[in-house]
Specification:
The complex is a heterodimer.
Chain A: E1 2-8, E2 14-18, E3 21-23, H1 35-47, E4 52-63, E5 66-69, H2 72-79, H3 95-102, H4 110-118
Antiparallel strand pairs in A: 1-2, 1-4, 2-3, 4-5
Chain B: H1 6-28, H2 33-42, E1 45-47, E2 52-56, E3 62-63, H3 65-78, E4 82-85, E5 91-96, H4 101-109, E6 127-128, H5 142-153, E7 168-171, E8 185-191, E9 197-203, E10 215-222, H6 226-240, H7 251-258, H8 260-273, H9 276-279, H10 283-291, H11 306-314, H12 316-325, E11 326-328, E12 334-339, E13 350-352, H13 353-366, E14 371-373, E15 379-385, H14 389-398, E16 413-414, H15 429-438, H16 442-448, E17 453-456, E18 470-477, E19 480-487, E20 499-500, E21 505-506, H17 510-524, H18 531-538, H19 541-548
Parallel strand pairs in B: 6-7, 7-8, 16-17, 17-18
Antiparallel strand pairs in B: 1-2, 2-5, 3-14, 4-5, 4-13, 8-9, 9-10, 11-12, 12-15, 14-15, 18-19, 19-20, 19-21
Helix pairs in contact in B: 1-2, 1-4, 3-13, 6-8, 7-8, 11-12, 15-17, 17-18, 17-19
The chains are: A alpha+beta, B alpha+beta.
The complex binds iron/sulfur cluster.
């Protein structure tokens, strides 16, 4: 299972893909079950290059009844920096943010791997 | 302080306006991200984990109060009200919007600030001794030569697309506060026996994946040949540096593979062919630049200030601050004041807009209009009268800027790490904060003495972990945060690379391990040995045993 993330071109804000465009919170992200849907989402995000930049897919899995990013990096990205709890997505608060913050474990993410490959 | 002239100012304005056009074309879709990315990077704009990051150059770490206020204004208007000072003495803003960047560059240009040489495979911003012009032990003012190098290197057409980025450090003091030996070229100004001013030129230092301590390529290069000689070094590097593999592209790899003697031979051969007279700075031009750093109008004061002495005797906080954050000034009656950006719980190197403004005010009022940035992510008021220290200390303390911990265990260097940086394996800031919590007693910190802890979130080593007395490197174990500890590194004149302690530790074990390392040091140190001295005497074994004891 995967979700797709990117940064909004105009302001750099992290977005998650849902129904063909970027939304602000991971909790609203669309989940893509099979590789055909994942590839299609990635192609669609890439084609919207005046709106979003550097789109990539990352793994999500169920934990405590909800879907969360498997990789710690992606959870941190969906929340905001840990040294400034009022900065980034976490500022919004609510149970979905709290659940994300509670998730544990780690895994690799194409967000970083693609970046290293490109550099 | 060197002030930009009409030509410099026009150039900055032109560049900001050029970038405005490039941003507009990117937003309209006229150019793609692949086309735009190198353009935005040339203007210091990176895409990080949560947002764009704008890195603004602070040439050789020197800021006027007007410039510092402009940085504060940018942080307040376009970011979240703070800035992050880096180990390259630049400042980064972590929450910048692409659409605002042209306006920001315009605003910075009005005070002579810009993002030139903060990215790309060019000669980057030059690091200089933050105590330049203030310390008694320098033979010349390194800012003069840093400015010479800045003017020579900015937009140098031959060196704009080097195999990889290229970093200079310049110091004129036997005590190295620039980590010169960890730079691509480290320059140490000295006078030879005949009194001729010259540079010890060191080359091929660097951190990252393959750390190297620089080797001396020339013991004493007469100062007036600086530009032609470094041009020869850069030319050899530009021709033979490896462009096929970014991990082998820095000059350190070339120097290591050729050996310093062969590299020197090649440089000398190129230098002999260079029209040195065309490249070396004419004396009139050097004099023009030197005039910008002319000795300041210091007052003639007694070496001891009764006001300060009386206050210090009555105010333990001031006394502690004086012990740890003051450095001797060349002018009697003055001191160099280090302003720590490492308060307990703070993010190393972060300063809020209000803090920047306060330091700008203090710089204006008490430090002859001069503020410096150190590679240890602190700020410096270089010229404070002893008589004014009580007032300066009180003002700093009220803004949480008087933490008396310079070079002590809590004066930790940390890169932005996984909290901000897209390349990171692991966090660095929170590790620094956790270590800080283990050492809340300032008495204990003073008892421990000089201890430089440096943390990087990945092997790129922006946190200089290789040269930390204790170095901490974030590594990736199946996507989880782990940390590799090294001991015994130094970025100072006694430079060395740290030695591996043992297997990487999980996040929640790191701060405890540092505490164990410190306790081990205290139990075996002799006399007033620093942590580094003890390590060099006893080696890694007792430390390793202590940290991994419970793992057996
Ligand atoms: S060391 Fe790595 S994680 Fe830290 S700032 Fe540099 S690139 Fe980012």
């Amino acid at each position: 299972m995967k979700a797709l993330s990117a940064n909004r071109l105009i302001d750099g804000d992290v977005v998650f893909w849902s129904n063909g465009s970027g939304v602000d919170q991971f909790s609203k992200a669309e989940l893509f079950y099979d590789s055909a849907a994942q590839d299609a989402a990635l192609e669609q995000a890439k084609s919207q290059f005046t709106t979003v930049v550097e789109p990539y897919l990352f793994d999500v899995a169920k934990q405590g009844g909800i879907f969360v990013p498997v990789s710690y990096r992606e959870r941190l990205r969906a929340l905001g920096p840990t040294n400034e709890p009022t900065h980034g997505k976490q500022a919004q608060g609510g149970h979905e943010i709290a659940a994300l913050a509670k998730a544990v474990g780690g895994g690799h993410t194409s967000g970083r791997i693609d970046l290293l490959r490109k550099n | 302080m060197y002030l930009y002239d009409e030509i410099d100012r026009d150039m900055l304005a032109d560049r900001a306006s050029e970038f405005r056009g490039q941003v507009a074309r990117r937003l309209s879709g006229e150019i793609t991200e692949d086309q735009f990315k190198p353009l935005r990077l040339m203007n210091g704009l990176y895409l990080q984990l949560h947002a764009y990051m704008l890195r603004v150059s602070v040439p050789y770490g020197s800021l006027s109060p007007v410039q510092l206020r402009a940085l504060a204004a940018v942080s307040r208007k376009y970011d979240k009200g703070y800035g992050h000072f880096t180990t390259r003495t630049n400042i980064q803003f972590h929450w910048i919007k692409l659409k605002d960047t042209p306006d920001i560059l315009d605003e910075l240009a009005t005070v002579g600030l810009h993002a030139i040489q903060t990215s790309g495979n060019c000669i980057r911003n030059i690091t200089a001794d933050p105590y330049a012009g203030a310390t008694a032990d320098e033979v010349d003012d390194p800012r003069v030569w840093s400015e010479v190098l800045r003017q020579w290197s900015t937009f140098h057409p031959e060196f704009s697309f080097l195999p990889r980025k290229f970093k200079f450090a310049v110091t004129a003091s036997p005590k190295d506060r620039t980590a010169a030996k960890a730079h691509d070229i480290g320059l140490v100004l000295r006078r030879n026996r005949d009194g001729v001013l010259g540079f010890e030129v060191m080359v091929g230092g660097g951190m990252g994946r393959t750390p190297h301590i620089a080797s001396t390529i020339r013991e004493h290069l007469p100062a007036d040949h600086l530009l032609s000689y470094v041009e020869a070094v850069l030319r050899v590097y530009n021709r033979h540096g490896r462009r096929d593999n970014m991990y082998k592209a820095r000059i350190k790899i070339l120097v290591a593979s050729l050996g310093i003697d062969e590299f020197r031979r090649q440089v000398d051969a190129v230098w002999a062919l260079i029209e040195q007279g065309e490249i070396d700075l004419p004396p009139s031009e050097l004099a023009r630049i030197r005039a910008a750093f002319a000795p300041l109008n210091f007052e003639s004061l007694p070496a001891i200030s009764p006001t300060f002495e009386a206050e210090r005797a009555n105010n333990p906080a001031l006394a502690r601050f004086a012990r740890n954050n003051l450095r001797p000034h060349k002018q009697p009656g003055y001191a160099i004041v280090e302003v720590s950006l490492k308060a307990p719980g703070a993010t190393p190197g972060d300063a809020t807009a209000e803090q920047m403004e306060l330091i700008a005010d203090l710089g204006e009022r008490y430090s002859l209009g001069d503020v410096r940035v150190t590679h240890a992510q602190n700020l410096v008021l270089p010229h404070v009268k002893l008589d004014d220290l009580p007032a300066v200390h009180a003002a700093l303390a009220a803004a949480k800027l008087a933490t008396p911990n310079i070079d002590l265990v809590t004066d930790i260097i940390a890169c932005p790490g996984l909290d901000y940086c897209a390349l990171a394996n692991a966090r660095a800031i929170s590790v620094a904060q956790d270590i800080g919590e283990k050492f809340t007693s300032p008495d204990k910190a003073e008892l421990i003495g000089e201890l430089k802890i440096k943390i990087s979130g990945c092997i790129n080593a922006c946190g200089h972990h290789h040269v930390g007395h204790i170095g901490i490197l974030g590594v990736d174990k199946k996507g989880e945060e782990f940390y590799q500890l090294t001991l015994g590194g130094s970025g100072a004149e006694d430079a060395s690379l740290g030695e591996m302690l043992g297997p990487a530790l999980a996040y929640d074990r790191v701060a405890g391990a540092v505490e164990t390392l410190v306790d081990t040091y205290l139990s075996v140190r002799v006399g007033d040995e620093r942590f580094l001295d003890t390590f060099r005497r006893v080696g890694v074994a007792p430390f390793k045993e202590a940290v991994y004891a419970d793992a057996h």
